[in-house]
């Protein structure tokens, strides 16, 4: 059984940083695309960033230059470094794994990120 477990969320002031981790167990995900999503209260879940099996990253415009996605296949873990956080980054962040476009095979349970002064 594959499990994705996110960690690293918390409360941070505007301009601060957090590093989210998504650790996979049950099988190696080195050949999977790994994506990060977020869902703010009252809003739909949205894609934030992703990384291909060859470590090519991609981001939505709103986080370009502030967020960095990376992966460590030896640890079966994906990271999301979030810098210069803004109020609007407040959300539950989820990681997900997919082999094909638009079909996510595995999801984590989410980790809360709150940006507040």
Description of the molecule:
- The chain is 0% helix and 55% strand.
- With 117 residues, the chain is mostly beta strands.
- A hairpin with a 5-residue loop joins strand 5 and strand 6 (57-59).
Summarize the structure.
The chain is mainly β and 117 residues long.
Q: Which overall shape is indicated by the principal axes computed on the Cα atoms?
A: globular
SS summary, helix count: 0
Portion in beta strands: over 45%
SS-derived structural category = mainly beta
Model regions low in confidence, pLDDT < 50 over at least 5 residues: none
Alpha-carbon distance between the two ends = 40 Å
Q: Tell me about the biggest sheet? A: 7 strands, mixed
Order of SSEs, N→C?
A: EEEEEEEEEEE
Radius of gyration: 13 Å
Mean pLDDT: 97
The residue fraction in helices comes out at under 10%
């Amino acid at each position: 059984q594959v499990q994705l477990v996110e960690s690293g969320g918390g409360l941070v002031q505007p301009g601060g940083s957090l590093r989210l981790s998504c650790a996979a167990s049950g099988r190696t995900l080195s050949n999977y695309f790994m994506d990060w999503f977020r869902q703010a209260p009252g809003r739909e879940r949205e894609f934030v960033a992703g990384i291909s099996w060859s470590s090519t990253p991609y981001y939505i415009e709103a986080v370009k230059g502030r967020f960095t996605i990376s992966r460590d296949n030896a640890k079966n873990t994906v990271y999301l470094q979030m810098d210069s956080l803004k109020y609007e980054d407040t959300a539950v962040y989820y990681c997900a794994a997919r082999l094909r476009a638009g079909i996510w095979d595995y999801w984590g349970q989410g980790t809360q990120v709150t940006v507040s002064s």
